[in-house]
């Protein structure tokens, strides 16, 4: 791992613009080095933050972006729980990512086939790699320490072969989902968690400062060769005792 950076902002209002800057700086670097930018998106609170910050950037050009989903809920795209559906309304409709560059699940399939179909789509985009190497993955973390749809104590935490796994018993609704596995997450060139709000404070402390017993899913995100950022706000960071960086909205990562 290139080193973990824990960066604390006064609030999500200051965090958002720096997250957008991180995305565009890694996009520029990737396009210069290999002609395209591969980005994995998570759902939850990230959707509205990215939907607010990215379209507001002047001259944002997403024509060379390829976007996948770190996890997705198996519901129709017009269901309010659909991560793709939410991004479509709040982000994709406002920026110029080509439709062919948005890797969606086929939500009409049963969950196992949906995971296989999404695996095939990822393999087409990353031919030759045993696990896809995304330029940037944006992750969230639930108050239970889950990330993607990798939940505490679930057998999927031990998955080492699959790129995408189905889950039918998600403790957080909806129960059927597909998720990238840890080998994919930990192969990325850069991973950034975004965690805001006081409800995340207890688990953030456990994840970043360690605890007895099995590691929370979010604590298992340790990119083999990539960068790892934790971008958090003051309420989420309230219980931390480790050294952190404190930045404001004009910062560059
Ligand atoms: O269910 C999910 O939750 C996590 C965390 O969401 P947040 O709203 O607490 O940030 C999210 O990262 C994941 O993509 C989603 O499916």
Automatic annotation (TrEMBL):
EC code: 3.1.1.31
SUPFAM superfamilies xref list: NagB/RpiA/CoA transferase-like
Keyword Cytoplasm tagged: no
Gene Ontology biological process terms from the UniProt entry: carbohydrate metabolic process; pentose-phosphate shunt
Enzymatic reactions: 6-phospho-D-glucono-1,5-lactone + H2O = 6-phospho-D-gluconate + H(+)
Domain Glucosamine/galactosamine-6-phosphate isomerase: 11-230
CDD domains: 6PGL (cd01400)
Keywords of this entry: Hydrolase
InterPro entries from the UniProt entry: 6-phosphogluconolactonase_DevB, 6PGL, Glc/Gal-6P_isomerase, NagB/RpiA_transferase-like
Pathway: Carbohydrate degradation; pentose phosphate pathway; D-ribulose 5-phosphate from D-glucose 6-phosphate (oxidative stage): step 2/3
GO MF: 6-phosphogluconolactonase activity
Similarity-based family: Belongs to the glucosamine/galactosamine-6-phosphate isomerase family. 6-phosphogluconolactonase subfamily.
Function: Hydrolysis of 6-phosphogluconolactone to 6-phosphogluconate.
Protein's UniProt name: 6-phosphogluconolactonase
Lineage: Eukaryota, Metazoa, Chordata, Craniata, Vertebrata
């Amino acid at each position: 791992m290139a080193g973990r950076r824990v960066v604390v902002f006064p609030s999500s209002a200051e965090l958002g613009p720096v997250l957008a800057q991180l995305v565009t700086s890694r996009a520029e670097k990737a396009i210069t080095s290999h002609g395209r930018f591969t980005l994995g998106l998570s759902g939850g609170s990230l959707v509205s933050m990215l939907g607010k910050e990215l379209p507001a950037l002047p001259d944002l050009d997403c024509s060379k972006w390829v976007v996948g989903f770190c996890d997705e809920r198996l519901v129709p795209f017009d269901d309010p729980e659909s991560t793709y559906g939410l991004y479509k309304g709040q982000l994709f409709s406002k920026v110029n990512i080509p439709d062919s560059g948005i890797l969606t699940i086929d939500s009409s399939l049963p969950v196992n086939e949906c995971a296989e179909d999404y695996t095939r789509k990822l393999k087409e985009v990353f031919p030759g790699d045993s696990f896809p190497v995304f330029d940037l993955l944006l992750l969230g973390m639930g108050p239970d320490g889950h990330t993607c749809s990798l939940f505490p104590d679930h057998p999927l935490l031990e998955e080492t072969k699959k790129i995408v796994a189905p889950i039918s018993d998600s403790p957080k609704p909806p129960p059927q989902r597909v998720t990238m596995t840890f080998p994919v997450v930990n192969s990325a060139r850069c991973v950034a968690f975004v965690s805001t709000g006081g409800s995340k404070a207890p688990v953030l402390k456990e994840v970043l400062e360690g605890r007895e017993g099995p590691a929370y899913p979010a604590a298992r995100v340790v990119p083999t060769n990539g960068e790892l950022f934790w971008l958090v706000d003051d309420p989420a960071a309230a219980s931390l005792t480790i050294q952190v960086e404190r930045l404001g909205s004009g910062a560059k990562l």
